[in-house]
């Protein structure tokens, strides 16, 4: 059965992978983007250059009908934030913008809305067992708070309107085209820079972008997903040192990992004002992703090894 899916953020890192996954199924895809000619081949482009999806309902094409929306567009962490009221900025996009898309889609006949949230809506780290969907959320930054508020506002709207809401909370997403910290780590490894990661045993959940895309497609099309919240991972958590070693192998680079004690790294973080960055590096963040397996029978189609191989191959070809 083919579906008609509206995809926000269609030209982004995850959006392109989701577009490919939908097109391979034979689904019809409309990508909402701000810049022309940026969507994948086969995706119908809807150019909507408006802050936080303002006016989306009025500008919705008369003939455009969709069964489901996969909402990827969001305000994410900026490297050098300049806004004075960060939480207000995040709320404008991640809460109010999200609700505008949901309401406009509902009025245009959509039955389901899949929201790409983040594990940061729950926590920045885990202590003890991996984080379950039923754990009490305690976000610690403006981004995480805005994502949790969006989840709750969507569930309220779904109850009022009948729109089926599905929430997906990925951890760190990697794959060809990855940016930010993961790309910086690959840059350092590829250049043979000695890294103080050899003694970090803390494990962190990851998800390969094609695994996440596959899960999002299931959430948009499987009747059993309605009303559910899912954590999605590769199903195997690597320690930071294991990840760095695996990337070194795939990048054909030397493994230059120094076994610096975690306590020394934390002290260095405090002295340099980079406590948050060091905590992300040495702290554990594990997700329990068994719920989506039990509820939808979904399992990641790609292994961690395959995901890292694809990511490294892209890096070697483009850097």
From TrEMBL:
Residues 5-228 form the NAD-dependent epimerase/dehydratase domain. It holds the Pfam family Epimerase. InterPro entries: Epimerase_deHydtase, Lipid_A_modif_metabolic_enz, NAD(P)-bd_dom_sf. It comes from the Bacteria. This is SDR family oxidoreductase. It comes from Paraburkholderia panacisoli.
């Amino acid at each position: 059965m083919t579906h008609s899916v509206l995809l926000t953020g269609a030209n982004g890192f995850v959006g392109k992978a989701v577009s490919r996954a939908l097109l391979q199924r034979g689904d019809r895809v409309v990508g909402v983007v701000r810049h022309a000619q940026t969507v994948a081949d086969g995706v119908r482009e809807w150019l909507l250059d408006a802050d936080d999806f303002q006016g989306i309902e009025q500008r919705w094409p008369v003939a455009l009908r969709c069964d489901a929306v996969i909402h990827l567009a969001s305000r994410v962490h900026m490297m050098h934030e300049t806004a004075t009221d960060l939480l207000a900025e995040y709320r404008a996009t991640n809460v109010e913008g999200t609700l505008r898309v949901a309401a406009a889609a509902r009025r245009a006949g959509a039955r389901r809305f899949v929201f790409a949230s983040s594990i940061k809506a729950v926590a920045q780290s885990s202590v003890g067992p991996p984080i379950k969907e039923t754990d009490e959320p305690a976000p610690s930054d403006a981004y995480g708070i805005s994502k949790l508020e969006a989840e709750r506002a969507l569930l309220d709207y779904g109850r009022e309107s009948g729109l089926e809401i599905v929430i997906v909370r990925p951890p760190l997403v990697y794959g060809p085209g990855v940016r930010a910290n993961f790309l910086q780590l690959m840059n350092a490894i590829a250049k043979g820079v000695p890294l103080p990661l050899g003694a970090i045993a803390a494990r962190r959940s990851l998800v390969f972008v094609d695994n996440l895309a596959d899960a999002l497609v299931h959430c948009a099309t499987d009747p059993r997903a309605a009303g559910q919240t899912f954590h999605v991972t590769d199903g195997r958590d690597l320690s930071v040192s294991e990840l760095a070693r695996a990337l070194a192998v795939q990048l054909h680079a030397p493994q230059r990992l120094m076994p610096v004690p975690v306590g020394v790294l934390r002290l260095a973080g405090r002295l340099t004002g980079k406590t948050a960055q060091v905590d992300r590096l040495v702290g554990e963040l594990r997700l329990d992703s068994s719920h989506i397996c039990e509820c939808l029978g979904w399992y990641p189609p790609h292994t961690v090894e395959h995901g890292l191989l694809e990511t490294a191959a892209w890096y070697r070809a483009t850097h």
